Amino acid sequence: MKKPDLERVLFTEEQVNQRIAEIAAAISERFAGRPLKLIGVLKGSVFFLTALARQLSIPVKIDFLSISSFGGVKHPGIVRIAKDLDEPIDGEDILLVEDIVDSGLTTRYLLQMLAGRGPNSLGIVTLLDRTSKRLVQVPIDYRGFEIPDAFVIGCGLDHKQLYRNLGYIAVLKPDKP
Ligand code: 5GP
Question: What sections of the chain are H helices per DSSP?
Answer without folding.
Answer: 13-30, 46-55, 105-115
